[in-house]
Amino acid sequence: xxxIKELSYAFQHNGVSKSIFQKISMDVKAxxxxxxxxxxxxxxxxxxxxxxxxxxxxxxxxxxxxxxPEKGLGKVGYMPQKDLLLPWRTVVENVLLPMELAKENKQxxxxxxxxxxxxxxxxxxxxxxxxELSGGMKQRxxxxxxxxxxxxxxxxxxxxxxxxxxxxxxMHTWLLELWGDLQKTMxxxxxxxxxxxxxxxxxxxxxxxxxxxxEVTVNLPRPRKTELIYQSEFIAMRKELEWLIQDEK
Length: 249
Ligand SMILES: Nc1ncnc2c1ncn2[C@@H]1O[C@H](COP(=O)(O)OP(=O)(O)OP(=O)(O)O)[C@@H](O)[C@H]1O
Ligand SMILES: [Mg+2]
Description:
By secondary structure, the chain is α/β, with parallel strands linked by helices. It has a domain at 2-76 and 151-248: P-loop containing nucleotide triphosphate hydrolases (Rossmann fold). The chain is built from 7 helices and 9 strands; from the N terminus they run E-E-E-H-E-E-H-H-H-E-H-E-H-E-E-H. Strand 6, helix 5 (165-182) and strand 7 (185-189) form a beta-alpha-beta unit. Helix 2 packs across helix 3, helix 2 runs parallel beside helix 4 (135-147) and helix 6 (193-199) crosses helix 7. The chain is globular. The two termini are 31 Å apart. It binds adenosine-5'-triphosphate (ATP) and magnesium ion. The site of adenosine-5'-triphosphate has 12 residues, from strand 1 and helix 1.
């Protein structure tokens, strides 16, 4: 599905080149849920912008479904780090945005969108404006909009990062329930180790400069429930991940 080979990227700033990562490689198989963790500034959002085709790599290759995306080409659904709902559009109009951009028939999609809104607990908010929604609801609208791009590979940059822990827990329950039906491939950035373990099949730890990227497989059976976090296998996994991260520093 996604294959990244020896990818390097450096930002140019005032004529000085600042390397963000060097020769990182990773693979994501169809249907996998893979999280990317790493210190703030390690380049997680930059990696997503490269995969989404918003930035061009300096070196290395990105393959999506056997093709190398050209710059700006919409091969993936991408939810940026901040939810970017347009304040002057209602919930349903925000969700329709990717279809509008792709010049698809909106009317045909409306039935599908309404079904999803109802699954997302947003049925009554179809015609509400973003300022009328809670933080969790806004995240769900932005999440739904990303799914509605129809792309198989979806990138989520800290979608639940700004939520309080209780709302976040509800989002986890909701996403775990949804996950089996979605049949998408997910790449998910988070700072929250518990979230990464609970949701993912595998976790990549983005290195600080010069180090190797590390990969951890989460061998916990699915379907998963949020109570899993209290089980000993989960706690052991969390400890292992904390060790790895501390080693990085
Ligand atoms: N447009 C830009 N021009 C120059 N430098 C940039 C630009 N965007 C990001 N950077 C730098 O690249 C580095 C990586 O940024 P990035 O946003 O990818 O980090 P991140 O891992 O997503 O961090 P966080 O966890 O805080 O979101 C940072 O040092 C940042 O200052
Ligand atoms: Mg970021």
